[in-house]
Protein backbone atom coordinates (compact mmCIF):
# COMPACT_ATOMS: atom_id res chain seq x y z
CA UNK A 1 0.00 0.00 0.00
CA UNK A 2 1.18 3.60 -0.62
CA UNK A 3 2.38 5.28 2.61
CA UNK A 4 -0.39 7.91 2.52
CA UNK A 5 -2.94 5.11 2.99
CA UNK A 6 -1.77 4.99 6.61
CA UNK A 7 -3.84 8.11 7.34
CA UNK A 8 -6.90 7.12 5.38
CA UNK A 9 -10.26 5.67 6.28
CA UNK A 10 -12.28 4.20 3.46
CA UNK A 11 -14.47 6.76 1.66
CA UNK A 12 -17.17 4.12 1.10
CA UNK A 13 -18.96 2.10 3.74
CA UNK A 14 -18.24 -1.59 4.30
CA UNK A 15 -21.56 -2.85 2.90
CA UNK A 16 -21.01 -0.98 -0.37
CA UNK A 17 -17.49 -2.36 -0.72
CA UNK A 18 -18.23 -5.96 0.23
CA UNK A 19 -17.78 -8.98 -1.99
CA UNK A 20 -21.13 -10.50 -2.95
CA UNK A 21 -20.68 -13.71 -0.95
CA UNK A 22 -18.71 -12.34 2.00
CA UNK A 23 -20.51 -9.75 4.19
CA UNK A 24 -18.09 -7.88 6.46
CA UNK A 25 -18.23 -8.63 10.20
CA UNK A 26 -20.91 -6.59 11.95
CA UNK A 27 -18.48 -5.26 14.57
CA UNK A 28 -16.25 -3.53 11.99
CA UNK A 29 -16.82 0.23 11.63
CA UNK A 30 -18.83 1.31 8.62
CA UNK A 31 -15.92 3.27 7.14
CA UNK A 32 -13.01 0.99 7.83
CA UNK A 33 -9.45 2.04 8.48
CA UNK A 34 -7.06 0.95 5.74
CA UNK A 35 -5.67 -1.80 7.99
CA UNK A 36 -9.14 -3.28 8.48
CA UNK A 37 -9.82 -3.15 4.75
CA UNK A 38 -6.49 -4.84 4.07
CA UNK A 39 -7.37 -7.56 6.55
CA UNK A 40 -10.66 -8.12 4.74
CA UNK A 41 -8.89 -8.40 1.38
CA UNK A 42 -6.18 -10.71 2.71
CA UNK A 43 -8.78 -13.33 3.44
CA UNK A 44 -8.75 -13.79 -0.34
CA UNK A 45 -5.01 -13.86 -1.07
CA UNK A 46 -1.69 -13.78 0.78
CA UNK A 47 0.87 -14.36 -1.97
CA UNK A 48 2.94 -12.12 -4.24
CA UNK A 49 3.07 -12.80 -7.98
CA UNK A 50 6.64 -12.76 -9.31
CA UNK A 51 5.96 -13.56 -12.97
CA UNK A 52 3.28 -14.79 -15.39
CA UNK A 53 4.59 -16.66 -18.45
CA UNK A 54 2.97 -18.36 -21.38
CA UNK A 55 3.85 -22.05 -21.66
CA UNK A 56 5.64 -23.26 -24.78
CA UNK A 57 2.45 -25.00 -25.93
CA UNK A 58 0.28 -21.93 -25.21
CA UNK A 59 -1.19 -21.78 -28.74
CA UNK A 60 -2.62 -25.26 -28.20
CA UNK A 61 -3.42 -25.28 -24.47
CA UNK A 62 -3.74 -21.59 -23.48
CA UNK A 63 -1.94 -22.43 -20.22
CA UNK A 64 0.23 -20.16 -18.06
CA UNK A 65 3.09 -20.67 -15.62
CA UNK A 66 2.65 -18.46 -12.57
CA UNK A 67 5.52 -18.00 -10.13
CA UNK A 68 4.47 -16.81 -6.66
CA UNK A 69 6.23 -15.93 -3.43
CA UNK A 70 4.65 -16.36 -0.02
CA UNK A 71 5.23 -14.03 2.91
CA UNK A 72 7.82 -16.47 4.28
CA UNK A 73 9.88 -16.13 1.08
CA UNK A 74 8.98 -19.53 -0.34
CA UNK A 75 8.60 -19.53 -4.15
CA UNK A 76 6.40 -21.83 -6.19
CA UNK A 77 5.56 -22.23 -9.88
CA UNK A 78 2.12 -23.57 -10.79
CA UNK A 79 0.49 -24.20 -14.18
CA UNK A 80 -2.96 -22.62 -14.62
CA UNK A 81 -5.50 -22.93 -17.39
CA UNK A 82 -6.35 -19.25 -17.05
CA UNK A 83 -5.08 -16.13 -15.24
CA UNK A 84 -6.98 -13.10 -13.97
CA UNK A 85 -4.88 -9.98 -13.23
CA UNK A 86 -6.41 -7.84 -10.46
CA UNK A 87 -3.66 -5.38 -9.48
CA UNK A 88 -5.56 -2.23 -10.48
CA UNK A 89 -4.26 1.23 -11.41
CA UNK A 90 -2.43 2.60 -8.43
CA UNK A 91 0.98 1.02 -8.81
CA UNK A 92 3.29 3.73 -10.21
CA UNK A 93 3.21 7.45 -9.23
CA UNK A 94 2.52 9.94 -12.02
CA UNK A 95 4.66 13.05 -11.60
CA UNK A 96 4.15 15.38 -14.63
CA UNK A 97 6.93 17.87 -13.84
CA UNK A 98 7.02 19.13 -17.43
CA UNK A 99 3.56 20.62 -16.88
CA UNK A 100 4.97 22.92 -14.19
CA UNK A 101 7.64 25.28 -15.59
CA UNK A 102 10.34 26.26 -13.13
CA UNK A 103 9.91 23.27 -10.85
CA UNK A 104 13.48 22.12 -11.60
CA UNK A 105 14.81 25.31 -9.98
CA UNK A 106 12.30 25.38 -7.11
CA UNK A 107 14.23 26.14 -3.91
CA UNK A 108 11.92 24.17 -1.65
CA UNK A 109 11.04 20.49 -1.40
CA UNK A 110 8.57 18.61 -3.57
CA UNK A 111 7.33 15.01 -3.72
CA UNK A 112 4.43 12.84 -4.90
CA UNK A 113 1.58 11.94 -2.54
CA UNK A 114 2.73 8.30 -2.85
CA UNK A 115 5.70 9.24 -0.63
CA UNK A 116 3.63 11.05 2.00
CA UNK A 117 3.86 9.32 5.39
CA UNK A 118 2.72 11.98 7.86
CA UNK A 119 2.89 15.71 8.56
CA UNK A 120 6.10 15.26 10.56
CA UNK A 121 8.66 17.84 9.42
CA UNK A 122 6.01 20.16 7.95
CA UNK A 123 5.32 22.10 11.14
CA UNK A 124 5.14 25.81 10.44
CA UNK A 125 5.70 25.33 6.69
CA UNK A 126 3.81 26.87 3.79
CA UNK A 127 2.64 23.99 1.64
CA UNK A 128 1.05 23.77 -1.81
CA UNK A 129 -0.97 20.71 -2.71
CA UNK A 130 -1.44 20.09 -6.45
CA UNK A 131 -4.83 18.45 -6.22
CA UNK A 132 -5.83 16.27 -9.14
CA UNK A 133 -6.39 12.95 -7.43
CA UNK A 134 -8.73 12.51 -4.41
CA UNK A 135 -5.88 11.89 -1.95
CA UNK A 136 -4.95 15.57 -2.30
CA UNK A 137 -7.87 16.60 -0.11
CA UNK A 138 -6.99 14.11 2.65
CA UNK A 139 -3.32 15.08 2.63
CA UNK A 140 -4.13 18.81 2.63
CA UNK A 141 -6.33 18.35 5.70
CA UNK A 142 -3.69 16.29 7.50
CA UNK A 143 -0.90 18.80 6.79
CA UNK A 144 -3.09 21.81 7.66
CA UNK A 145 -3.21 20.73 11.31
CA UNK A 146 0.51 21.55 11.76
CA UNK A 147 1.51 23.79 8.81
CA UNK A 148 1.46 27.56 8.78
CA UNK A 149 -0.76 27.50 5.69
CA UNK A 150 -1.86 25.00 3.05
CA UNK A 151 -2.75 26.15 -0.46
CA UNK A 152 -4.83 23.60 -2.36
CA UNK A 153 -4.43 24.12 -6.10
CA UNK A 154 -7.13 22.62 -8.29
CA UNK A 155 -7.54 23.03 -12.02
CA UNK A 156 -11.12 21.85 -12.31
CA UNK A 157 -12.56 21.70 -8.77
CA UNK A 158 -14.59 18.82 -7.36
CA UNK A 159 -17.81 17.93 -5.64
CA UNK A 160 -17.08 17.20 -1.98
CA UNK A 161 -19.36 15.02 0.14
CA UNK A 162 -19.22 13.70 3.68
CA UNK A 163 -19.18 10.08 4.79
CA UNK A 164 -22.09 10.87 7.11
CA UNK A 165 -25.63 11.13 5.76
CA UNK A 166 -29.02 11.91 7.25
CA UNK A 167 -29.52 10.54 10.73
CA UNK A 168 -25.80 9.83 11.04
CA UNK A 169 -26.00 6.82 8.73
CA UNK A 170 -23.41 6.13 6.01
CA UNK A 171 -24.15 8.50 3.13
CA UNK A 172 -23.60 5.86 0.44
CA UNK A 173 -26.27 3.63 1.97
CA UNK A 174 -28.87 6.34 1.38
CA UNK A 175 -30.24 7.36 -2.01
CA UNK A 176 -28.41 4.51 -3.77
CA UNK A 177 -31.23 2.05 -4.36
CA UNK A 178 -32.32 0.49 -7.64
CA UNK A 179 -35.30 2.83 -7.57
CA UNK A 180 -32.95 5.81 -7.32
CA UNK A 181 -30.85 4.49 -10.21
CA UNK A 182 -34.00 3.99 -12.32
CA UNK A 183 -35.13 7.58 -11.70
CA UNK A 184 -31.62 8.82 -12.46
CA UNK A 185 -31.66 7.03 -15.82
CA UNK A 186 -35.13 8.29 -16.67
CA UNK A 187 -34.45 11.90 -15.55
CA UNK A 188 -30.63 12.36 -15.61
CA UNK A 189 -30.49 16.16 -15.71
CA UNK A 190 -33.12 16.64 -13.02
CA UNK A 191 -31.50 14.02 -10.78
CA UNK A 192 -28.11 15.72 -11.10
CA UNK A 193 -29.56 19.17 -10.33
CA UNK A 194 -31.40 17.89 -7.27
CA UNK A 195 -28.32 16.16 -5.86
CA UNK A 196 -26.05 19.15 -6.57
CA UNK A 197 -28.56 21.41 -4.80
CA UNK A 198 -28.58 19.05 -1.82
CA UNK A 199 -24.78 18.93 -1.69
CA UNK A 200 -24.59 22.73 -1.90
CA UNK A 201 -26.91 23.01 1.09
CA UNK A 202 -24.14 21.50 3.22
CA UNK A 203 -21.72 24.13 1.92
CA UNK A 204 -21.77 26.29 -1.19
CA UNK A 205 -19.12 24.88 -3.55
CA UNK A 206 -18.96 28.14 -5.52
CA UNK A 207 -18.37 30.17 -2.36
CA UNK A 208 -15.60 27.77 -1.27
CA UNK A 209 -13.91 27.86 -4.68
CA UNK A 210 -14.51 24.15 -5.28
CA UNK A 211 -17.39 24.14 -7.77
CA UNK A 212 -16.37 22.08 -10.84
CA UNK A 213 -17.57 22.49 -14.40
CA UNK A 214 -18.68 18.85 -14.59
CA UNK A 215 -21.90 17.45 -13.16
CA UNK A 216 -21.97 15.42 -9.98
CA UNK A 217 -22.51 12.11 -11.80
CA UNK A 218 -19.65 12.64 -14.28
CA UNK A 219 -16.82 11.86 -11.84
CA UNK A 220 -16.56 10.37 -8.39
CA UNK A 221 -17.06 13.00 -5.72
CA UNK A 222 -14.27 13.61 -3.22
CA UNK A 223 -15.22 12.16 0.15
CA UNK A 224 -13.97 14.35 3.00
CA UNK A 225 -15.54 15.19 6.33
CA UNK A 226 -12.85 17.70 7.33
CA UNK A 227 -11.96 19.68 4.20
CA UNK A 228 -14.84 22.23 4.45
CA UNK A 229 -14.00 22.83 8.14
CA UNK A 230 -10.33 23.46 7.34
CA UNK A 231 -11.32 25.89 4.57
CA UNK A 232 -13.76 27.87 6.72
CA UNK A 233 -11.18 28.12 9.49
CA UNK A 234 -8.55 29.41 7.05
CA UNK A 235 -6.12 26.54 7.50
CA UNK A 236 -6.63 25.56 3.86
CA UNK A 237 -6.98 28.05 1.00
CA UNK A 238 -8.29 26.88 -2.37
CA UNK A 239 -6.29 28.26 -5.29
CA UNK A 240 -6.57 28.01 -9.09
CA UNK A 241 -4.12 26.15 -11.30
CA UNK A 242 -0.35 26.63 -10.94
CA UNK A 243 1.20 28.52 -13.84
CA UNK A 244 4.86 28.22 -12.86
CA UNK A 245 7.44 28.17 -10.08
CA UNK A 246 9.94 30.97 -9.56
CA UNK A 247 12.65 30.25 -7.02
CA UNK A 248 10.78 29.70 -3.76
CA UNK A 249 7.52 31.14 -5.09
CA UNK A 250 4.56 29.66 -6.92
CA UNK A 251 2.44 31.56 -9.43
CA UNK A 252 -1.28 30.75 -9.54
CA UNK A 253 -3.29 31.82 -12.54
CA UNK A 254 -6.89 31.59 -13.63
CA UNK A 255 -7.09 32.58 -17.28
CA UNK A 256 -5.84 36.15 -17.71
CA UNK A 257 -7.99 37.74 -15.03
CA UNK A 258 -6.30 36.68 -11.83
CA UNK A 259 -2.69 36.02 -10.89
CA UNK A 260 -1.13 35.55 -7.47
CA UNK A 261 2.47 34.90 -6.35
CA UNK A 262 3.02 33.17 -3.00
CA UNK A 263 6.21 32.03 -1.33
CA UNK A 264 6.09 28.38 -0.26
CA UNK A 265 8.36 25.75 1.28
CA UNK A 266 6.90 22.42 0.13
CA UNK A 267 4.91 21.14 -2.84
CA UNK A 268 2.91 17.89 -2.72
CA UNK A 269 1.84 16.48 -6.09
CA UNK A 270 -1.39 14.48 -5.78
CA UNK A 271 -1.34 13.94 -9.53
CA UNK A 272 -2.49 10.36 -9.79
CA UNK A 273 -0.83 7.19 -11.00
CA UNK A 274 0.34 5.27 -14.01
CA UNK A 275 -0.21 1.55 -14.21
CA UNK A 276 2.46 -1.12 -14.38
CA UNK A 277 2.33 -4.87 -15.00
CA UNK A 278 6.00 -5.91 -14.75
CA UNK A 279 5.11 -9.58 -14.33
CA UNK A 280 3.31 -9.79 -17.70
CA UNK A 281 4.99 -10.40 -21.08
CA UNK A 282 5.81 -7.10 -22.79
CA UNK A 283 3.73 -8.10 -25.83
CA UNK A 284 0.59 -7.87 -23.68
CA UNK A 285 1.25 -4.30 -22.56
CA UNK A 286 0.35 -2.55 -25.81
CA UNK A 287 -1.45 0.73 -25.13
CA UNK A 288 -4.42 2.43 -26.72
CA UNK A 289 -3.80 6.03 -25.72
CA UNK A 290 -3.12 5.95 -21.98
CA UNK A 291 -4.91 2.64 -21.53
CA UNK A 292 -4.14 -0.99 -22.08
CA UNK A 293 -5.72 -2.34 -25.25
CA UNK A 294 -8.43 -4.60 -23.80
CA UNK A 295 -11.65 -5.97 -25.23
CA UNK A 296 -14.51 -4.89 -22.95
CA UNK A 297 -11.81 -3.59 -20.56
CA UNK A 298 -10.99 -7.24 -19.75
CA UNK A 299 -9.37 -9.36 -22.50
CA UNK A 300 -6.09 -8.62 -24.38
CA UNK A 301 -7.13 -9.13 -28.03
CA UNK A 302 -3.63 -10.14 -29.18
CA UNK A 303 -3.69 -13.54 -27.43
CA UNK A 304 -4.25 -16.62 -29.53
CA UNK A 305 -6.13 -18.14 -26.58
CA UNK A 306 -8.44 -15.94 -24.43
CA UNK A 307 -7.13 -17.34 -21.14
CA UNK A 308 -5.92 -14.10 -19.53
CA UNK A 309 -8.26 -11.43 -18.19
CA UNK A 310 -7.55 -8.06 -16.55
CA UNK A 311 -10.09 -7.24 -13.82
CA UNK A 312 -10.57 -3.98 -11.94
CA UNK A 313 -8.65 -1.89 -14.49
CA UNK A 314 -11.56 0.54 -14.71
CA UNK A 315 -12.88 3.80 -13.31
CA UNK A 316 -16.41 3.44 -11.99
CA UNK A 317 -18.87 5.58 -10.05
CA UNK A 318 -18.78 4.25 -6.51
CA UNK A 319 -16.97 1.21 -5.15
CA UNK A 320 -14.76 -0.70 -7.56
CA UNK A 321 -15.13 -3.97 -5.60
CA UNK A 322 -18.53 -5.07 -6.94
CA UNK A 323 -17.65 -3.83 -10.43
CA UNK A 324 -14.42 -5.82 -10.46
CA UNK A 325 -16.21 -8.88 -9.12
CA UNK A 326 -18.80 -8.62 -11.90
CA UNK A 327 -16.00 -8.39 -14.44
CA UNK A 328 -14.44 -11.52 -12.97
CA UNK A 329 -17.71 -13.42 -13.05
CA UNK A 330 -18.30 -12.32 -16.64
CA UNK A 331 -14.78 -13.37 -17.61
CA UNK A 332 -15.43 -16.82 -16.18
CA UNK A 333 -18.92 -16.93 -17.73
CA UNK A 334 -20.70 -16.81 -14.37
CA UNK A 335 -23.53 -14.39 -15.06
CA UNK A 336 -26.25 -13.15 -12.78
CA UNK A 337 -29.89 -12.41 -13.41
CA UNK A 338 -32.35 -10.78 -11.05
CA UNK A 339 -35.54 -12.64 -11.84
CA UNK A 340 -38.88 -10.94 -11.31
CA UNK A 341 -40.02 -13.71 -8.98
CA UNK A 342 -38.08 -11.98 -6.20
CA UNK A 343 -40.31 -8.98 -6.53
CA UNK A 344 -43.24 -11.03 -5.34
CA UNK A 345 -41.46 -11.77 -2.09
CA UNK A 346 -42.53 -8.47 -0.53
CA UNK A 347 -39.87 -8.14 2.16
CA UNK A 348 -36.99 -9.00 -0.14
CA UNK A 349 -38.52 -6.93 -2.96
CA UNK A 350 -38.52 -3.78 -0.83
CA UNK A 351 -34.89 -4.31 0.14
CA UNK A 352 -33.75 -5.02 -3.42
CA UNK A 353 -35.67 -2.18 -5.04
CA UNK A 354 -35.74 0.52 -2.36
CA UNK A 355 -32.76 -0.41 -0.19
CA UNK A 356 -29.07 0.15 -0.96
CA UNK A 357 -27.95 -1.67 -4.09
CA UNK A 358 -25.33 -3.90 -2.46
CA UNK A 359 -23.43 -6.68 -4.22
CA UNK A 360 -25.30 -9.50 -2.47
CA UNK A 361 -28.20 -8.94 -4.89
CA UNK A 362 -26.14 -10.47 -7.69
CA UNK A 363 -25.95 -13.81 -5.84
CA UNK A 364 -29.69 -14.35 -5.49
CA UNK A 365 -29.96 -16.51 -8.60
CA UNK A 366 -28.12 -17.86 -11.61
CA UNK A 367 -24.70 -19.57 -11.81
CA UNK A 368 -22.72 -18.82 -8.69
CA UNK A 369 -25.91 -18.47 -6.65
CA UNK A 370 -25.17 -18.11 -2.94
CA UNK A 371 -27.61 -19.49 -0.39
CA UNK A 372 -26.74 -16.73 2.08
CA UNK A 373 -27.52 -13.86 -0.30
CA UNK A 374 -31.10 -13.33 0.88
CA UNK A 375 -30.06 -13.25 4.54
CA UNK A 376 -27.14 -10.93 3.76
CA UNK A 377 -29.55 -8.45 2.14
CA UNK A 378 -32.11 -8.63 4.93
CA UNK A 379 -29.47 -8.14 7.65
CA UNK A 380 -27.30 -5.47 6.00
CA UNK A 381 -28.78 -2.65 8.10
CA UNK A 382 -28.08 -4.65 11.27
CA UNK A 383 -24.40 -4.71 10.33
CA UNK A 384 -24.53 -0.95 9.67
CA UNK A 385 -26.05 -0.20 13.08
CA UNK A 386 -23.97 -2.65 15.13
CA UNK A 387 -20.75 -0.54 15.34
CA UNK A 388 -22.74 2.36 16.85
CA UNK A 389 -24.01 0.27 19.78
CA UNK A 390 -21.29 1.28 22.20
CA UNK A 391 -23.83 3.17 24.34
CA UNK A 392 -27.41 2.18 23.68
CA UNK A 393 -30.08 4.86 24.24
CA UNK A 394 -33.61 3.52 24.93
CA UNK A 395 -36.10 4.76 22.38
CA UNK A 396 -39.89 5.10 22.76
CA UNK A 397 -41.98 2.50 21.00
CA UNK A 398 -43.30 3.57 17.61
CA UNK A 399 -46.50 2.51 15.91
CA UNK A 400 -45.90 -0.20 13.32
CA UNK A 401 -46.59 0.62 9.68
CA UNK A 402 -49.95 -0.55 8.45
CA UNK A 403 -50.18 -3.66 6.31
CA UNK A 404 -52.05 -1.68 3.68
CA UNK A 405 -49.17 0.77 3.27
CA UNK A 406 -46.70 -2.06 2.85
CA UNK A 407 -48.86 -3.73 0.19
CA UNK A 408 -49.33 -0.46 -1.72
CA UNK A 409 -45.61 0.34 -1.67
CA UNK A 410 -44.66 -3.21 -2.61
CA UNK A 411 -47.11 -3.39 -5.47
CA UNK A 412 -46.15 0.00 -6.85
CA UNK A 413 -42.46 -0.84 -6.58
CA UNK A 414 -42.96 -4.16 -8.34
CA UNK A 415 -44.91 -2.57 -11.18
CA UNK A 416 -42.36 0.19 -11.67
CA UNK A 417 -39.52 -2.33 -11.58
CA UNK A 418 -41.30 -4.50 -14.15
CA UNK A 419 -41.75 -1.49 -16.45
CA UNK A 420 -38.15 -0.36 -16.12
CA UNK A 421 -36.79 -3.90 -16.37
CA UNK A 422 -38.39 -4.36 -19.76
CA UNK A 423 -37.28 -0.92 -20.97
CA UNK A 424 -33.72 -1.13 -19.72
CA UNK A 425 -33.01 -4.86 -19.39
CA UNK A 426 -29.37 -4.58 -20.45
CA UNK A 427 -28.34 -1.79 -18.09
CA UNK A 428 -29.88 -3.54 -15.08
CA UNK A 429 -28.54 -6.99 -15.75
CA UNK A 430 -24.98 -5.89 -16.37
CA UNK A 431 -24.31 -2.39 -14.99
CA UNK A 432 -20.72 -2.19 -16.20
CA UNK A 433 -22.00 0.67 -18.36
CA UNK A 434 -20.97 2.84 -15.42
CA UNK A 435 -17.36 1.98 -16.20
CA UNK A 436 -15.27 4.48 -18.10
CA UNK A 437 -12.20 3.89 -20.21
From TrEMBL:
Chief site of localization: endoplasmic reticulum
Location in or out of the cell: Endoplasmic reticulum membrane
Keywords: Endoplasmic reticulum, FAD, Flavoprotein, Membrane, Monooxygenase, NADP, Oxidoreductase, Transmembrane, Transmembrane helix
Enzyme kind, highest EC tier: oxidoreductase
Topological relation to the membrane, as annotated: Single-pass membrane protein
GO cellular component: endoplasmic reticulum membrane
The EC number(s) this enzyme carries: 1.-.-.-
The species this protein was found in: Dicentrarchus labrax (European seabass)
Domain of life, source organism: Eukaryota
Gene3D superfamilies (UniProt xref): FAD/NAD(P)-binding domain (3.50.50.60)
Pfam families cross-referenced by the UniProt entry: FMO-like
Name assigned to this protein: Flavin-containing monooxygenase
Family of the protein in this entry: Belongs to the FMO family.
Cofactor(s) listed: FAD
Catalytic activity of the protein: N,N-dimethylaniline + NADPH + O2 + H(+) = N,N-dimethylaniline N-oxide + NADP(+) + H2O; hypotaurine + NADPH + O2 + H(+) = taurine + NADP(+) + H2O; hypotaurine + NADH + O2 + H(+) = taurine + NAD(+) + H2O; trimethylamine + NADPH + O2 = trimethylamine N-oxide + NADP(+) + H2O
Function statement: Broad spectrum monooxygenase that catalyzes the oxygenation of a wide variety of nitrogen- and sulfur-containing compounds including xenobiotics. Catalyzes the S-oxygenation of hypotaurine to produce taurine, an organic osmolyte involved in cell volume regulation as well as a variety of cytoprotective and developmental processes.
Chain segments annotated as transmembrane: none
GO molecular function terms listed in the Swiss-Prot or TrEMBL record: flavin adenine dinucleotide binding; N,N-dimethylaniline monooxygenase activity; NADP binding; trimethylamine monooxygenase activity
Amino acid sequence: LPPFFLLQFQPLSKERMAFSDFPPPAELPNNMHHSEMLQYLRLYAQTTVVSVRQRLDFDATGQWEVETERTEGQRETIVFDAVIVCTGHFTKPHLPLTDFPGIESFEGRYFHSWDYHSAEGLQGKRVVGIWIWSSGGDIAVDISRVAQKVYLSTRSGAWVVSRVGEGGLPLDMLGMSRMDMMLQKLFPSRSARMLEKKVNKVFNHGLYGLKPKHGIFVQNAVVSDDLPAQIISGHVQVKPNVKEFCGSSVVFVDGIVYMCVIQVDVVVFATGFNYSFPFLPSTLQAKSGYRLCLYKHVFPPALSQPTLAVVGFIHGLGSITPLAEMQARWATRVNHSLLLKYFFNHLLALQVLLGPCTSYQYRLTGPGQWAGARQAILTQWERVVQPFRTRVIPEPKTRPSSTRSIIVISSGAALLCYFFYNKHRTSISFPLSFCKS
